[in-house]
Amino acid sequence: MSLKNRIVLNCLPRHVAIIMDGNGRWALQKGKDRNYGHRKGVDTVREIIETSAELGIQYLTLYAFSTENWNRPWEEVEALMELMVHSLNNETKKLVNNNIVLKVIGDIDRLSAGVRESLDYTLEQTSKCNGMTLIVALSYSSRWEMVKAVRDIAYKIKEGKIDPANIDDKIFENYLTTRNIPDPELLIRTSGEIRISNFLLWQLAYSELYFTETLWPDFGKEDLYKALIEYQKRERRFGKTSEQLHENGN
Ligand code: FPP
Question: Which of 77, 84, 40, 83 is nearest to 62 (CA)?
């Protein structure tokens, strides 16, 4: 049976998040510069978006640029920004044709005016779509997001709009950039690194984690199928016992 046919389509994760890692190493292995790896990484992005939408995944989040990535050599930061914005702009029509709505999470105030303008164009063009939601984490880090949430809540308390005694998970989640987006059931990280790197720390609390040695430019639809098959073998207990889950018919 093909890998694709082994996926149980009515048990797909609603939300898949991916840390796309290994572009630099992939390029260096080929004797090329790091930006060559990022350009090849965009081909993978395209294939994974198409495959996810085709399967019926509802939310796909891609970690494209972290707050910490601003510390990379300036030429690489500039090349990455250009590449991302051009790719999104070039793909706008295709996104719309595939009914994909784009969202961006992150500290976008740090992006240049030109980058933000291009981004706004694609955001606007896809805003009426209602198929898969593609979330690009850009200038994003989870600590930035949580500190911002705490600050925003503190302002509301000061204005008398929130009573601290009422703060719970739901209220806190409303102040995260992922408000109204369900938590990812599955996180994939490529390139053999086994860490979360400041990505969706709150939202990944109960996610299944899948790590693969494959470098991002080599990650293709068959690799996504493998991750989904592995996910479907996991028992998601959310702190309960296995017996409790089976008693409740879950
Ligand atoms: C990690 O590889 C990859 C990145 C920091 C950038 C990923 C961005 C893209 C593939 C472009 C995304 C485009 C869109 C449109 C979302 P690395 O450079 O850290 O690789 P290394 O760990 O091997 O050095």
Answer: 84
Between the CA atoms of 152, 153, 157 and 158, what dihedral angle is there, to the nearest 10 degrees? -20
Residue 21 dihedral angles phi and psi, to the nearest 5°: -130, 150
DSSP letter for 170, please.
H
- Contact by Cβ (8 Å): 76, 82: no
Q: Which of 19, 21, 69, 95 is the best mutation target for the ligand 1 pocket, counting ligand atoms within 8 Å of the beta carbon and taking the most?
A: 21
Among residues 19, 231, 12, the alpha carbon closest in space to that of 136 is found at: 19
pTM: 0.94
Whether 41 is in the pocket of ligand 1, judged by its Cβ within 6 Å, is: yes
CB of 91 closer than 8 Å to CB of 46: yes
Using DSSP's 3-state secondary structure scheme, residue 67 falls into: helix
Ligand 1 within 6 A of CB of 22: yes
14-140+183-233 folds as: Undecaprenyl pyrophosphate synthetase (3.40.1180)
Structure confidence by residue, pLDDT tens digits, 236-248: 777 888 888 778 6
pLDDT digits (tens, 9 = 90+) for 160-190: 999 999 999 999 999 999 999 999 999 999 9
Active site residues: 21, 69
The verdict on the CB of residue 104 being under 6 Å from ligand 1 is no
- Map tokens 């000061």 to a residue: 158
**CB-CB contact of 35 with 108 (8 Å):** no
